[in-house]
Amino acid sequence: MAQDDEKSIDQLNEEADIAADYLEGLLDIADYEGDIEMGIRNNRPTVQIVADDDTDIKHLIGRNGEVVDALQQLTRLAVQQKTGERSHLIVDVDGFLKRKRQHLRDIALDAVDAVKESGEPFDLKPMNSFERKVVHDVVREEGLKSRSHGEEPHRYVTVYVKNKSEESDEVEDFDEE
């Protein structure tokens, strides 16, 4: 399937079902108690692990979300193995991504304010593709431009003011996960 092709709701639900089954198996092996909630957000299947026990769930998030990221990559591979197609599935644990998105939004808005005040480009610290995408979206909403630079894992975003030739240019420059 080409990247531009939209998946049907049935395909997205199938991916979420496969992911939920896979994650339930992992939780059983690791002896973690957790409920799995599935859905579709922004044309992407989403699976959230929710638990009653705050101590156990923190281990599934990890430092700076490293465990969530790993769970997402493993789950995407499991879905791809079953469907034969790459998935843009999102895995979240106990609302971690929502909190992370808000934090990234605040960072992006601070950068936008700095650029508006100084007129000079502003470089952010290196981020993963998810983080860069959130920043690019916020910057675009605020009417400025952003561009990613560098190589993984040191890829970062620069926020800057549009120049006159870019004001009519609608080409976006942001990362896709």
UniProtKB/TrEMBL annotation:
Q: Which residues form the R3H domain?
A: 98-163
- List the SMART domains hit by this protein, alphabetically: R3H
CDD domains registered for this protein in UniProt: R3H_jag (cd02644)
What the entry lists under Gene3D superfamilies is as follows: 3.30.300.20, R3H-like domain
Q: Which GO terms describe its molecular function?
A: RNA binding
Under the heading InterPro entries, the entry gives:
KH_dom-like_a/b, KhpB, R3H_dom, R3H_dom_sf, R3H_KhpB
Official protein name in the record: Jag protein
The species is Bifidobacterium cebidarum
* Upper taxonomic lineage: Bacteria, Bacillati, Actinomycetota, Actinomycetes, Bifidobacteriales
